[in-house]
Design a protein that fits this description.
CATH architecture: Orthogonal Bundle
Order of helices and strands: HEEEHHHHHEEHHHHHHHEEEHHHEEH
Low-confidence stretches: none
Oligomer: single chain
Strand content: 5-15%
Helix content: 40-55%
Mean pLDDT: 86
Strand order of the largest sheet: 1-2-3
Radius of gyration: 24 Å
CATH topology: Cytochrome-c3 Hydrogenase, chain B
Structural class: alpha+beta
CATH class: Mainly Alpha
Shape: globular
Number of helices: 17
């Protein structure tokens, strides 16, 4: 019996899956999201995603305020693309109210749009550099980004939340000195971004991100991803060209839609770098052809607000992360009946699963960063009934009724 116990035997056992919780608080994530990553060895074989850690109830809060208060509320939905949110909202109000901003106001809105795109893309390029361990490139990229923030401060007085938009126009104008400074800054930024482009296209960075996080053209179309995430997979879409707003209809010939067909992190990164050059071209065209005239109506903004009738409208803009959609329904007395916001991250998150499956654990932070997620403006409320095993998105009235009913029981 002893001899039999000492005999060595080789037994083949199938490697079992291990589930690793990636988040919601994790050094590699800039915002909270829970990824339940199932791995076999180092390979990712399945991904389950859980949102809801930073749900703020912005839509409900907006429905309890007047239109001017809501304008400043929705600017706080996202600090990186705050101007995109306010412009999308204001466009819907102006459509309902039949208000047409001046050409100068539209050009100034577009100027801030493109400066915001440069600022957002540089921030994301720095994050990707940090995730692949290239700290020097990360610090240099964010140093270049500071120049854009300085410009924002000179134009609007704020570096992040610009408070640029108002009903029928904009609040801040450009002086001839500002125009010269913006033009000089663009030359500096262009030179720096050329250097950043050369570094990102270097063989060392290329080997780290090329072929990583692949999202095929067919998957990108099927999953309806937007923005640089879609254009990095060869999908030729851009709201600025396809559904022009602000001054983009007059600037169509001054920029090209950047499309790459690599379908990986490398392609999505290159799309953003090349889009910065296109944004610089747009900004130069705006400065060269900036129309004269007023920047906002003479009428008091509160009178304009009260003059907006009951109605509804859908507004689209191309935010730095992709297509941003607002559904606005006014009540005719200066308030809102309904506000619905669909952010680009909400569309792009579903594309993470095919990107992550097949990669290694160490690649997860880089792939997640490549879609430039913004979770604060994305989360929705879902109620899960554990007894019945059902999950439902419920409306506000139902939620209030449940809370009231529980309070009465107590």
């Amino acid at each position: 019996m002893t001899a039999e116990r000492d005999v060595e035997r080789e037994v083949e056992v199938e490697y079992t899956r291990l589930r690793i919780p990636f988040g919601p608080i994790h050094p590699a994530l800039k915002e909270p999201v829970l990824l339940r990553v199932s791995v076999r060895g180092e390979e990712v074989v399945d991904v389950d995603m859980a949102l809801g850690h930073v749900h703020r109830g912005i839509e409900l809060l907006a429905e309890g305020r007047n239109l001017i208060q809501t304008l400043y509320l929705i600017e706080r939905i996202c600090g990186i693309c705050s101007h995109s949110h306010t412009t999308c909202f204001i466009q819907a109000l102006e459509e309902i109210g039949g208000i047409t901003p001046s050409k100068r106001a539209l050009y100034l809105r577009t100027l801030i749009f493109e400066m915001e795109r440069i600022h957002s893309h540089l921030l994301l390029l720095g994050v990707i550099a940090y995730e692949i361990g290239f700290d020097t490139l990360f610090m240099f990229t964010w140093h270049v980004r500071e120049k854009i923030l300085d410009l924002f401060e000179k134009i609007t007085g704020n570096r992040i939340h610009h408070a640029m938009n108002t009903i029928g126009g904009v609040r801040w104008d450009l002086t001839p000195r500002m125009v010269e400074e913006i033009d000089a800054y663009m030359r500096e930024v262009e030179k720096s971004v050329k250097y950043i482009h050369n570094v990102f296209m270097d063989g060392t960075v290329e080997k780290r991100v090329c072929g990583l996080g692949v999202l095929s053209y067919d998957d990108a179309v099927k999953l309806c991803v937007v923005g640089p995430t879609a254009r990095g997979s060869g999908v030729d879409i851009d709201v600025r060209r396809d559904h022009p707003y602000a001054a983009y209809d007059e600037l169509k010939r001054d920029f090209s839609v950047v499309v790459e067909r690599g379908c990986d992190v490398y392609a999505r990164t290159e799309v953003r770098i090349l889009e910065i050059f296109e944004s610089i071209n747009i900004i130069r065209a705006i400065l060269d052809r900036l129309p004269d005239g007023p920047i906002r109506p003479k009428e008091n903004v509160f009178r304009l607000m009260r003059g907006i009738p009951e109605g509804e409208a859908i507004s689209l803009v191309e935010a730095p992360r992709g297509e941003l959609l607002y559904f606005v329904k006014t009540d005719g007395s200066g308030g809102l009946k309904r506000l619905k916001v669909r952010t680009p991250t909400f569309s792009n998150l579903i594309g993470l699963k095919p990107m992550l499956i097949g990669c290694e654990i160490a690649d997860v932070p880089v792939i997640v960063a490549s879609i430039d997620p913004c979770l604060s403006c994305t989360n929705r409320l879902i109620v899960i009934d554990q007894e019945r095993g059902e999950s439902n998105v419920i409306d506000v009235d139902s939620l209030r009724h449940r809370v009231r009913r529980r309070w009465m029981r107590q």
